[in-house]
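Thanks for the sequence, V.! I ran E3 ubiquitin-protein ligase XBOS34-like isoform X1 right away. Repeating your input here for the record:
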Amino acid sequence: MTCQGGQKNEMNELAEISSEGLGTFSSTNESGISPWITGKQLQVSETKIEETLNGNHNYNRTYSSAFSGSGCDDLTTSSHVKKLLDNLQSLSNEVQTKSATELRLLAKHNMENPLLNLSINEDNKAKIAKSGAIEPLVRVLKSGNDGAKENSTASLFSLSVLEECKARIGRSGAVKALVNLLYPGTLRGKKDAVTALFNLSIFHENKARIGQAGAVKYLVELMDPESEMGTPRAKEKAQQLLCHFAIKESATGKGKT
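Predicted structure:
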């Protein structure tokens, strides 16, 4: 695996989510996520086993995906996003987790196509960002339960693709919280955290923040091919992020002997 400059096409990340999370469909309406539209809904229930440092961790993740034409506009209205952001500040862990999950899906998924149409996803991301989502997501990332933190991480990863969000996310205090998820944490959580950090590092101010947050030692451990700490994609992003630091040091002369 070689050091690559710039950002990879996000379709790889989104297609990975599709293959992991869109496996089994059922027509039941017993979703843990509030109904977004009145049209036809398909739900995806996924039981995954993810390794943690303490062993295997089993959990059930339920997605609600809408495949209705007329209702999709309602899904991404400002009022709906605002409601989700308000719910992120709820004292209820359950409400926080559900809201973070919906924002994750809005940011990453095109509700009309499970294989994801990036142009529509970009619209969703822009709407979420303009609605003031970054600060509430960071608060949940710092103080929510594990499920809410993981979904907030995924949402921030999606928003970090947008150039206009890189500075705001970096200045919001998210970097330290993302670094804290690199060890310990679920495989998915680590992958989303390191990918978000990689995206953020493209903005020059964030490189210093990532280094000051103590990310390097975790990235080195994560990149180790013998380590079971992360997925292959997480290891790849860890290597690319370390390359960013190496390039910066070389350019400033700090890495010269």
